[in-house]
Write a structure and sequence with these properties.
alpha+beta, Endonuclease, Chain A, 2 domains, 4 strands, 39% helix, disordered C terminus
Length: 193
């Protein structure tokens, strides 16, 4: 199908559309942090690359990368239209991401990058929390919130083992509704009734 707008009109139209960020994935991750009782984080810290979450005390920066915009190796598919533009766009985004990580790590920050698709599964969410806890150098403490009762679920320092973390924490983590669930709840996301 050919475009009814001229190249200049399409360019002006697309340039006027402002980004709203990756608000839904950031909300999921923020809820995940609250559920895991992790505090001390701020949103969009004034650091190179504007990390989505910053833990100033632990000097940890967390980026939630959209699968399309950052070229996820698992999910990304190059659009059929204007392929050279999109190839360059994603390549430049990835180059900028590497540069920002390099600057942050040179300034003694730990950087965690989490793919958008990882927040859509309980295993991915648990992995994200594990990586964050390792970067913060915090053991995952025993907590009645996650219903821990067995000593076998913790290591000799009282930290949750990865298996216990997955088994006990995952049922309490928020999940992004799948496309099928959103449809069942009343159609498209953002549709008004």
């Amino acid at each position: 199908m050919t475009d009814v707008l001229t190249r200049e009109q399409r360019s002006r139209n697309m340039a006027s559309i402002r980004s709203r960020g990756n608000a839904s994935t950031e909300r999921v991750f923020a809820e995940l942090l609250r559920t895991a009782h992790l505090s001390g984080w701020r949103r969009h810290g004034p650091l190179p690359g504007r990390p989505d979450f910053v833990f100033p005390a632990g000097r940890v920066a967390v980026f939630i990368d959209g699968c399309f915009w950052h070229g996820c190796p698992k999910c990304y598919r190059l659009p059929q239209d204007n392929r050279p533009y999109w190839r360059d766009k994603v390549r430049n985004n990835r180059r900028r991401d590497r540069r920002n990580v390099r600057v942050l790590t040179q300034n003694d920050w730990k950087v965690i990058r989490i793919w958008e698709h990882a927040l859509g599964s309980r295993q991915g969410q648990a992995g994200a929390i594990r990586r964050l806890l390792l970067a913060l150098e915090r053991p995952y403490e025993q907590s009645s919130t996650f219903g821990l009762s067995s000593v076998a679920e913790t290591d000799r320092l009282g930290r949750l083992t990865p298996r216990a973390l997955t088994a006990k924490v995952l049922p309490n983590l928020p999940m992004q509704p799948t496309r099928a669930k959103r449809r069942a709840q009343g159609g498209r996301r953002g549709a008004r009734g």
